[in-house]
Structure formats: C-alpha cells, structure tokens
Amino acid sequence: MNISRRAWALVGLLALLAAVPPLAAALDQPFYVDLLRRVMIFAIAATSLNLILGYGGMVSFGHAAYLGIGAYAVGVLSHHGIDNGWLQWALAIGASALVALAIGAVSVRTSGIYFIMITLAFTQMLYYLGISIEEYGGDDGMRLATRSQFSGLIDLADASSFYYLVLAILALFLYLTHRLVNSRFGLALQAARSNEARTRAIGLSPYPYRLAAFVISGAMCGLAGALLVNHTAYLTPEFMNWTRSGELMFMVILGGIATAAGPLLGAAALLLLEDVLQGWSMLPKEAVRDHWQLYLGIILVLVVIFARRGLAGLLPGGGKND
Amino acid sequence: MTDVLLETRRISKSFGALVATDGVDFQVREGETHAVIGPNGAGKTTFIKQVSGELRPDAGSIRFAGEDITQLPAPKRSRRGLARSFQITSIYPEFSTLDNVALAVQAHAGHSFRFWKPAREDRSIVEPALQILQTIGLEKRKDIRAAELSHGEQRQLEIAMALATEPRLLLLDEPVAGMGADESTRMVEFLATLKGTKTIVLVEHDMDAVFSLADRISVLVYGRIIATGTPAEIRANAEVRAAYLGEEA
Question: Nearest residue of B to residue A189 by CA position?
C-alpha cells in the first residue's frame, strides 16, 4: 500500500517534470527548461550518492570527483576532436567506475570520520590535477567545442530534446536504484549499514558489497558529469570542488536519505532555493544575495532536526522506512 | 576424537595488562549442550568472541569440525556452521522481523551479488525464514519492525537469526539476559527442544537455565577454566563452590 503510494508520488513528480518544456514555452520562459535540466542532472548525481550514503551508510565527502571525471571524459575527447557521444559517455562511465574502484579499495575499509576524510582527500587531489593541466584550461576551464554527438539520433543543442534525455536517464536510474536496493545485493548492503557485527556473524562480509556499491555509484555519477558538461557547455575543475561534494550531500540529506524521491526533491529544493534567494531583490543584496548559503544552512538544520525523513517524508506514504 | 566438534587449545587473549583469556583448553562434543559459567568479568564474552572470530587470540589455536579456524574471520566461520547470538541484542532494528531472519538465510544461500530480483519475493529465502519464525513462535510478528518487538521477542529473534544459518554449533551468549520470569521459562523450554539436534555452547548467568539445559559445564574464573564436568560434578566441586557458586548462596 505504502510502496505503491510512494511510487505514484514519484511518478507524479516525473510527470510534472515532463510538463515543464511545453509550460515554459507557453509562458515564454525558456530559462526554466535550463534550470530544471540542471536540477535533474544533480538529482542523478545525488541519487548515485544516496546509494552509498543512504543505503550503504558510507558518508562520501568526495562524490564531486565523479562529476569531474565524467565531465573531463567528455571535455578532453571533445578537445581532441572526438565528439562521438557514445564513446565520450562510455569513457565517462568507465573512467568513473575505475577511479571509484581505486578510491573505494582504500577508503571502504575505513569508516566514520576516516572514510569522510579519505574520500575528501582523493577528490581534492583530482581537483588540483584538473587545475594544473593547462592543456584543458587549467583553473579557468575551457569551452566545450561541441556537445556530444549521437549520430543524428538526438541533438543536445536542442534544449527540449536534451531535457527529455536527462529526464529519461533520471527515470531509468531511479528505477535501477529501486531494483538494486531491493535485491539480495541491496539488502546485504543495508544490513551492513544497519548492524555490521550482526552482518558478519550471519556470514556476510560487508567489504565486497560496499565496494561494489561504491563503484556502481561512481559510474552513475560519472554519467551525471557527462550530462553536466554538456549542460554548461563548459569544462571546469570547479565541478570537483569540495563544496560541490558538500552540496550533493546536502541534497541527499535535505531530500531524505535512503528514499527514492529524496535526492530529486533535495536537488530541486537546493537549486530552486538558490535561484530564488540569489535573484531576490526585495531585500538588500548584502542581506540575501551574498549570504543565501546562510539561509540554506538554517533550512538544512531545521530539516535535520524536525524532518528526519527529509522532504521525501512529506510525500504521500513517505513516512515509512525502506 | 571425531566426536569433538569444537576445540580450543591453550588460547590466550590480553588487553594491555588484563589477561582476559589465559590458556584455555576447551572441548565441545558433537550434539552436547555445553554451558560456560563464571562470575562477572571472568572473560566469558571475550572467550566467545574468539570462538566466533570477532577477536583473534594472541596465542593458541581453535579447531572446528576437524579444521584449524584460528585465522578465519567471523563471516567465514559463520559459513562453516558457527552461529552466534549476542548478549546485548544485536538485530536489524529498522528491518521487519521476517527481513531479519531472511537476511540470515540469504547470507548462507551463496553470494549476494544478485542485483535485480526482489529478495523479498524470493521464495527460496522467504520460506525457510517463515518456517524458523514459526518454530520460534514469532510468525505473527513477521511484518513488525524489529525495533518495535518486546525485549523478549528480540531475544527470540536473535536465536532465530542464528538458527537460520543452519549452524552445526550454536554459541548462545546469555540468551535469557534481561528477560522476565515467564519469558525466560519459555526461552529455556525452547532451547530444551533444540537439545540433541544442535550442538550448543551456552554462556549464561541464570543457574536454573544452566543446570536444566547443560550436559556438561565448564567454569571460567579470571580467564581460566577451573573445572569441567556434568552438572552434578560441578555442584559437588569444592573449588567451584569456593570461587563461584558460593557467591550465589
């Protein structure tokens, strides 16, 4: 009963998103297509983080690394004249998975504050690597010569085609995550989060399942990075800034950890609030525009204290666990 | 010798200056219920943890079913048939009662790298789990979150999870701890039904439970086993009376 109500709530949200391009066209506000496409790309990244943070209990403070790797995979190939999207996106996913495997092999054995610090440290290394490579724009970044090309199948330069592609990928990832967390693999992962000693006592060693989840999550986020660089048409190491990792965590926690709709709601809430607060002209700029993160911070504190299930807990049937 | 299922040979474990296990030789025969008793701080839980694999002994060896398992980590020991219940209830509180047991069944049904099929609809896991809940009398509570079970029910669930791994040896760390008189009686009755079908190592403070269930008893004092024998022998042992049972009187 609850499960189906929650599923319908999520389908409703996706239907709302599907209605945005025609609505924006009717209202002559094409900017909203752009804004919500950005929301959905971050929702994909946050969904991938939710897999390890929410279901796996691994607080990764370095998830922006995979956004960066995905973006650089596209940007670097494009810089060398390879604009084949299939190849670019496959590299984005594959390279992210490999880096996640390397980082995960070291970090997943640790927990708590050590895990947070190791994931942060690796991401900082990649961030400074990005800054140091002048060939690909250094810390200024560089324009993407052309968006990823899909042999005429879909044109990412067309705002609404790109929008629907992102929506389709988001829907697919939400479904894949749903299958994953309810499979034997997903239950083993959640068991290890819930009670590690008990999990070992019944004969499950958490490490391989956590590492696999870490790699899957990195690969998913790599694709989000490929989408993001196509969205901005600009490659910058800022994609890997540690504040970006923090924003992804913010989205997951604000939206509701270990919930399907949470990352989408969190991404929407954060990016829409950011947009509203930054654009607010009723109050003096100094009070709002320059300090909007302060207000977001207050909101996050309130959510953590009063809505343990996050925004997803406010959806129909959202109060239940799992 | 083939009827010895578990054997520790001179295992020792120290934490700094504290010698928690001091050269313990211990044997459990196939099919028996072997109780380990001792005053608080005697090192019972430390001993159990070395058998289950949560702690490595500093010295000595542990053999299970004829093989040396001293270096095996806990999950591998579990897969070989060593199951353990915890003194302080250790369950998955946010999962349903059925999920808790099903996870234990799943852990012994091959690897869990299965990403697609919903585990809760997998009859090969759910049905054995339901059967165990029935055996232990929790089937009516199967859909309740484990956190919402009463303390006594959580203790039962603890045993159910251990049984779900189809163990050859059941390590029970104070199964009736913190239970009311009625619950405790029912738990002892249930454990009595397992007697003979399972080999059991029972660590317990409740002397009524110990003397009604155990075939043999070992007495652990300051990390050493000072006596092993039948309940009658242990009752009659002067050293035990002085070191331990005297406190109860």
Answer: B112
